[in-house]
Amino acid sequence: MDDATAFLHESMPLCATLGFRAESSSPSEVVLAVDWAPGLCTTAGLLHGGVVMALADSSGAMCAFLNLPEGAAGTSTIESKTNFLRGVGEGTVTATSTPLHAGRTTIVVETAVTNGDRLVAKVTQTQAVLQPRS
Question: Would you say 110 and 100 are in contact if contact means Cβ atoms under 8 Å apart?
């Protein structure tokens, strides 16, 4: 397991439970992936929408974390908008997150979720910048 995937699993244990892995991570782009598996599906063998949303939220959160202003303690999702475009019945699902705005109090991230070259979902989320408690 590489350092980015280890960080992902330590900071968000649900990612380890669902089998997410970090393909790459930098302040300008985070890419997470998960392989289709029967245990992650709903009817008709389609990947559960909650798995897709969790992948996008986790990718966006990692991107926001990498863009935190100096002195910030962390980040938390305060708003998320998902448009599902198609189901996933096989293969690897990838979430690619890029920052749209990195401010003092909020960070806005856009995430494209793909299955091969097909767009599965588009997600825009706002992350609150958390300050240390005194």
Answer: yes
Q: Is 65 left (phi over 0), alpha (psi -120 to 50) or beta?
A: alpha
Question: What predicted TM-score, i.e. pTM, was given to this entire model?
Answer: 0.95
Using one digit for the tens of pLDDT, what is the confidence trace for 43-77? 999 999 999 999 999 999 999 999 999 999 999 99
Hey, where are the domains in the chain? 3-130
Task: Name the 3-class secondary structure at 28.
Answer: coil
What is the fold of 3-130?
Thiol Ester Dehydrase; Chain A (3.10.129)
Query: Which candidate, 90, 121, 96, 92, places its Cα nearest to that of 109?
Result: 96
Cα gap 41→112, rounded to integer Å: 20
Furthest C-alpha separation in the chain: 51
